[in-house]
Amino acid sequence: MKAIKGMLLAVVMIFSTAAAAQTTIAGGEYWIDGTIDARQALSSGASIDISALQPGLHTLTVRVKDSNGLWSNQMARIFFVSPTGRIDATSVTACEYWIDGVKKPEYTTLNIQTIDISDLKPGLHKILVRAKDNLGIWSNQMARIFVVSPSGRTDATSVTACEYWLDGVKKAEYKTLNTQVIDISGLTPGLHKVLIRVKDDLGIWSNQMSRTFFVSPGAQSDATTITKREFWLDGNIVHRQTIDDTPAVIDISVLDAGLHMMTMRVQDNKGIWSNIVKETFTVIASGIHSIPADMKTGQWFDLSGKKLNGAPSRPGIYIRDGRKILIK
């Protein structure tokens, strides 16, 4: 029976990480090649039967569950199943390729070393190539970009035109290049992106070149203070909320146990928003099934019900007035 053992080192690493966090692993499961509906239970030190798999590349996905009933993130690894009694390949027996996504006939003999590209238009194209060995196993595809020159082409000697896009909107083409200034007076303060490409005297356009730039508020000095902060949970930006206090106190009592994501951004005194910052956090069951009277007096408690000496001094999840509170 073929079995995976070395691959399960990943599971051992998960178990070890959980032990370091003083939790208990209550179970695990795995599935192969994305068939999550056919997942199987997994225990520490177990072997996985792969005797029914075809030779070639496959994917193993593993996750474990702790004593609180929470599943870990999935961890995936790629492995290779060799043919029964396989020996090392000694020769290449076939080759096939694609040009611009179109598969071409397979070369069953390899004495043909020239690929006909006479029907391709001038410009950039992409070729994918893979080969098969004498054991019947195909290699991974190898991709290359190449340029087809116009018939009778010589090297380009000059740039004849230029065009650009601002924030995805194409602007008029410069037929002559004596204009070197792009008008950005209509742009709002903040980050923007410009894309530029040029055409040579042979009529071929270059690749686009992208640059990000910042438009400052007109005649204003640098921002000095943060005036507004807002956040939203699990990608629900429609229900974003404003927070003004420091540290941020966020009520998460309505969230289910498990992984969640918080997104935050701030606005300076010039009215410009920062980039968004995303962080994940885990809501776990507090183990408190009823709230005693002394836990409803505005005082702070940890998730085990232990009373704190004042407000929390570091980020985490706490209980106050019978609600779970996230401190950031």
Strands, helices and their partners?
Layout: E1 3-4, H1 9-20, E2 25-32, E3 40-42, E4 48-49, E5 56-66, E6 75-81, E7 92-99, E8 102-103, E9 123-133, E10 142-148, E11 159-166, E12 169-170, E13 190-200, E14 209-215, E15 226-233, E16 241-243, E17 249-251, E18 258-268, E19 277-283, E20 300-301, E21 316-320, E22 323-327
Antiparallel strand pairs: 1-4, 2-3, 2-5, 5-6, 7-8, 7-9, 9-10, 11-12, 11-13, 13-14, 15-16, 15-18, 17-22, 18-19, 20-21, 21-22
Description:
With 328 residues, this protein is mainly beta. The chain has 4 domains: 3-81, Sandwich (Immunoglobulin-like), CATH 2.60.40; 92-148; 159-215; 226-327, no CATH class. Helix content is 4%, strand content 41%. It is built from 1 helix and 22 strands. The protein has one helix at 9-20; strands spanning 3-4, 25-32, 40-42, 48-49, 56-66, 75-81, 92-99, 102-103, 123-133, 142-148, 159-166, 169-170, 190-200, 209-215, 226-233, 241-243, 249-251, 258-268, 277-283, 300-301, 316-320, 323-327. Strands 3-2-5-6 form a 4-stranded antiparallel β-sheet, with helices on one face. A 4-stranded antiparallel β-sheet has the order 8-7-9-10, with no helix packed on it. It has a 4-stranded antiparallel β-sheet with strand order 12-11-13-14, with no helix packed on it. A hairpin with a 2-residue loop joins strand 7 and strand 8. The model is unreliable at 5-21 (pLDDT under 50).
Globally, the shape reads flat
What string, H for helix and E for strand, traces the elements in order?
A: EHEEEEEEEEEEEEEEEEEEEEE
pLDDT below 50 for ≥5 consecutive residues: which ranges?
5-21
Radius of gyration: 30 Å
Give the class from helix and strand content and strand pairing. mainly beta
- Approximate strand percentage: 35-45%
Helix content: under 10%
Q: What's the tally of helices?
A: 1
Mean pLDDT reading: 77
The first-to-last residue Cα distance is 51 Å
Number of distinct beta strands: 22
